[in-house]
Design a protein that fits this description.
It comes from Streptomyces griseoincarnatus. With about 120 residues, the protein is an alpha+beta fold. It is built from four helices and four strands, in the order αβββαβαα. It has a four-stranded mixed β-sheet.
């Protein structure tokens, strides 16, 4: 049988201590990664759902609304606030621009505001 271990007891004890230290390091790393995965999974489960609709806000003291987006739109800027369905529909009817990527106007059933004179007049105010 092929035996590549040292023949004396002192070196064998040294190797045993060395490998025990490595096993402790490996076990500690496994425990740390297991904790991290558990925390990440808990975070994913407990993360609040994105709002259904958001308004992208401009820069400045008054921060005027710029566009309406769906809550999970990747094109929405960092400055935004959530709104409910009724407010999103009202703002679109008043002429606020809909995002061209997530198309909240189509999802809200507001397809063409320019053909309705009453809505165009309300948006002009």
């Amino acid at each position: 049988m092929f035996d590549d271990l040292p023949p004396d007891l002192d070196r064998l004890h040294t190797l045993r201590v060395w490998h025990t230290m490595w096993l402790q390091r490996i076990d500690a790393k496994i425990a740390a990664l297991t904790r991290r995965q558990t925390e990440e999974e808990r975070g994913r489960r407990n993360r609040p759902a994105p709002p259904e609709w958001i308004i992208e806000l401009g820069i400045g003291e008054r921060r005027p609304p710029l566009q309406i987006h769906t809550g999970d739109c990747h094109m929405a800027g960092k400055r935004n606030r959530p709104v409910d369905r009724d407010e999103a529909r009202r703002l679109l009817a008043m002429g606020l621009k809909a995002c061209g990527h997530c198309r909240p106007d189509s999802l809200l059933g507001i397809t063409d505001l320019s053909s309705n004179p009453a809505l165009a007049a309300a948006a002009a105010r």
